[in-house]
Structures are given as C-alpha cells and as structure tokens.
Amino acid sequence: MIAKKPWQMTGETKGTAHPVNSLLEAAPKFEVATKMVPTITVKHMENLEEMIKRHILAEDWDDVAPRELPDIGIKKNGELPEVSQEKSKLALVELYEQEYLKRQHDAAEKQ
User: Fold this and answer.
1) Collapsing DSSP states into helix, strand and coil, what is residue 36?
2) What Cα–Cα distance (Å) separates residue 105 from each residue in 76, 100, 109?
3) Residue 20, SS3?
4) CB 27 within 8 A of CB 8
5) How many CB atoms lie within 10 A of CB 34?
6) Which of 1, 7, 54, 110 is least surrounded, with the fewest CB atoms within 10 Å of its CB?
7) pLDDT (0 to 100) of residue 81
C-alpha cells in the first residue's frame, strides 16, 4: 500500500497538522537564486592593475562633468526675483508657441 506522506511533503499545512516545534527539528531545503561570486586570481588582479595604470597614463578619470545651474535671477545678496501674481491672459500653449517662434526667428537671422 501507499504510505501517508510526511507533513513536510504535503505542501501548505496548518499548525495543527504537524507536531509542535517540528519545523525547528527539520532541515528544509530550498533553492536561492544568487549570482556566482567571481574568483579573484593573480591574473585577474594583474589585469585590473594594468587597466588602472592605462587610465592614469591617459588621464581618463571618468569624472562626472559638472552641470551648470540655470540662472533664475537670484542676486548675490540673496534677494529673490520679483514674480508677478497676476494671471496670464495667454494660454500656456500660446506662450510656448511665441517662445518657439522667437527662437526660430533668431536662428533664421543668425544664418
């Protein structure tokens, strides 16, 4: 006859379906997906050192280029620019359109 499976093999079980603290005595086996740790060898270290030396000789520092912050009109004494509280009579689309047309006109004049 077929024997009854142990409680570990039955899938999800309630606490009443197995003896008290029986999971502490069992050694559950499960798979964990992890990356393999690279083995560091002497050859690997030599390649790394050579790469560092090449970067130093080429002065290739891979630095992040500092970005320029936009000028928002803050004066050196810390005063903020004056901002109008009045509602614009133009829609935002119209403002963008005017700005675009002005840039196109300026670009055409430069050529």
Assistant:
1) coil
2) 33, 9, 6
3) coil
4) no
5) 6
6) 1
7) 67
